[in-house]
Design goal:
It contains 2 helices and 10 strands. By secondary structure, the protein is mainly β. It is globular, with a radius of gyration of 18 Å.
Length: 175
C-alpha cells in the first residue's frame, strides 16, 4: 500500500464515473436538469449541457465544447441550471462570504481577525482578514485565490489550530 498512488476518485464510486452514478441513481432529477445553458462570462450562450451537477468550479475537461482556447467553469447557478465558462484568470477572487459560521474559540467573531483560510482538501491556505458581516463572515484574502466554489467548506486557521469555518456562499462581495 505504501507504493500505491493517492486516489482522487469518489470512494463509493469505484469506476469514478460520477455522471453515470447520478444518472442511474436519480434518473428523473438528471433528466429534469438536461438542456442547461453554457454561457461565457460576458453572457454569450456557448451551448447546452446535461445538468449543472455534472460540473465543478475550476473544471476544464469534459465541458462538451471546443473554442480554440482553454475554458474553465467559473460559476454554476443551480437556480437557472446555467454553467458559466471563462479564462483561468476569471477563477481568481480576493474576497468571499462564508455562511453558517461555526467558531471553536468563541461564539461570535468580534472585530477583524487575521487567519489562514483553506477552501479545499490539501490546500496550503491563504492569509486573510476575516470579519463578521451580518450573519456571514467576510473573507478578504491577502492574495487572489482560484476556484472558490460555493457550497464547499472554508476553514479558518491560526497556525495548526482551527479557529472555525463554514460554507462558501454563492453571493459574492463587491471586490
Amino acid at each position: 500500500l505504501a507504493n500505491k498512488s493517492e486516489s482522487y476518485e469518489i470512494c463509493f464510486i469505484p469506476d469514478n464515473d460520477y455522471r453515470g452514478f447520478l444518472k442511474r441513481r436519480e434518473p428523473e432529477a438528471t433528466a429534469e436538469l438536461a438542456h442547461g445553458r453554457l454561457v461565457s462570462t460576458s453572457g454569450e450562450v456557448l451551448g447546452e449541457h446535461d445538468g449543472y451537477p455534472f460540473f465543478t468550479v475550476g473544471q476544464r475537461k469534459g465541458l462538451g465544447i471546443a473554442t480554440g482556447e482553454p475554458l474553465y467553469v467559473t460559476d454554476i447557478d443551480p437556480a437557472t441550471n446555467t454553467v458559466t465558462l471563462g479564462a483561468k484568470e476569471e477563477l481568481e477572487r480576493t474576497r468571499m462570504y462564508v455562511r453558517r459560521p461555526n467558531f471553536q474559540r468563541f461564539d461570535r467573531l468580534e472585530g477583524e481577525l487575521e487567519a489562514v483560510v483553506k477552501i479545499r482538501y490539501k490546500d496550503r491556505g491563504t492569509p486573510a482578514t476575516i470579519v463578521m458581516d451580518g450573519e456571514r463572515v467576510l473573507v478578504d484574502f491577502h492574495a487572489a485565490v482560484s476556484g472558490i466554489a460555493p457550497g464547499q467548506s472554508a476553514v479558518f486557521y491560526d497556525g495548526d489550530d482551527v479557529i472555525g469555518g463554514g460554507f462558501i456562499d454563492r453571493e459574492r462581495p463587491d471586490a
